[in-house]
Amino acid sequence: MPDCDTMAAADRSGTPRSNPFPPISGAVVNAVDPIWTAVRQEAAAEVETEPTLAGFLHTTILKHGTIESSLSFHLAGKLASESLPSILVRELIDETLAADPAIGRAVRADLQAVYERDPASHGYLTPLLYFKGFHALQAHRIAHWLWCEGRRVLAVHLQNRISEVFGADIHPAATMGSGILIDHGTSVVIGETAVVEDNVSMLHEVTLGGTGKQTGDRHPKVRQGVLIGAGAKILGNVEIGAGAKIGAGSVVLESVPAHRTVAGVPAQIVGSPHFDAPALEMDQSIPHIHTDGSGI
CATH code at 78? Predict the structure, then answer.
């Protein structure tokens, strides 16, 4: 089972989209937080152009001093239930964010990843408010902290609620790096002993699962810069090497070497990505595969 060490800071390689607000470094900037500044500026502009949402934007964004406070308020409202009201959920999230500042750094790296890699983001405000893949990942970070603190029943309770609300089922023990994009998030399943390193991108219906009833270390290890296409299933304690690309709909049952492209059922090597970190480029095209299984 992977340990519960503090998540590593995201690798900042790759060419970002044009952005008037520069990405922050690995540490949270105390005096100036460019991403939070951008979120607030976008929210203020939307108040002027869409008065219908003015109250929502003030309550969710503009009244808060930090991205942690805003995210805590927003997630608590979404994850609340009759058995766990929003005020208790928010207290839990606030406790976690205060105890582990690395989560705040990961939140910013994830939001930057969405901005740079998802053309539907149109800034930072939209994914922060509306992208459930982003929401599921941030809520998982809270559940993971609880799991590592030994509060496992509460962690699983939160996992269940995350699955119900966002449609993504990530075991609270799963280790997630930073700078991760979970695009759409619907039907993503990540098992207990899975490890996803920094700067990974995955789309909807991805499964990082086991292969049977065995216990112990039984889930995939996804290294930095990997791109996993929609509907791909990676099963068992296999390693997906750094910079690999997994084609949409593929079923991966064996380890994949670094910087190789695999596709098919079962997946086979069909080439190499054009980029060292395909997750940053989001080019999901796959070389043509001949009937004999060879690729060009």
Answer: 1.10.3130.10
